[in-house]
Amino acid sequence: MEATSAQEKKPVRHGSKAKPGEVSARVLFTACACLSIVAVFGIIGYILYGSIPAFREIGFFNFLFGSTWTPTYDHFGILPMLVNSIVVTLGAALIGGTVGVFTAIFLAFWCPDRLHLKYNGKNAFLQKTVALINKINLRTIFDQIIKILAGIPSIVYGLFGLEVVVNLLSNVGGDGKGILACSILLAVMILPTVTSLTKNALDAVPKQYYEGALAMGNTKAQAVFRVVVPAARSGIISALILGIGRAIGEAMAVVWVSGNRVLFPSGLFSYIRTMTTNIVMEMGYASGLHRSALIATGLVLLVMVLIITLSLNLVPKEFKGKRGEKVLRGEGAQPVAFRKKGHLSMAAAIFGMVCAALVGIILATIVIYILVQGVGCLTADFLFGEQSVATPTLGPAFLATLELIGITLVIALPLGICAAIYLNEYSKKGSKFVKVIRTFIDALAGVPSIVFGLFGNILFVTALGLRYSVLAGAFTMVLIVLPTIIRSAEEALYAVPMPLREASYGLGAGKVRTIFKIVLPSAFPGIATASILAIGRIIGESAALIFTMGTSFNFSGSPAGAASSLAVLLYVCAGEGLFMDQAYALAVILLGLTLILNLIVYFIERHVRKKR
Amino acid sequence: MHLFSRKKEGAAAPKAEKKDPLEIFDFSGDNAIVIEDVDLYYGDFQALKKINMVVPKLQITAMIGPSGCGKSTLIKTLNRMNDLVEGCRVEGRIEIGGVDIYDRRLDLSALRKNVGMVFQKPNPFPMSVYDNIAYGPRTFGVRSRGALDEIVERSLRQAAMWDELKDRLNKSAMGLSGGQQQRLCIARALAVGPQILLMDEPTSALDPISTGKIEELCGELKKDVTIVMVTHNMQQAARISDKTGFFLLGELIEFGNTDDVFSAPKHPETERYITGRFG
Question: Structure pTM?
Answer without folding.
Answer: 0.88
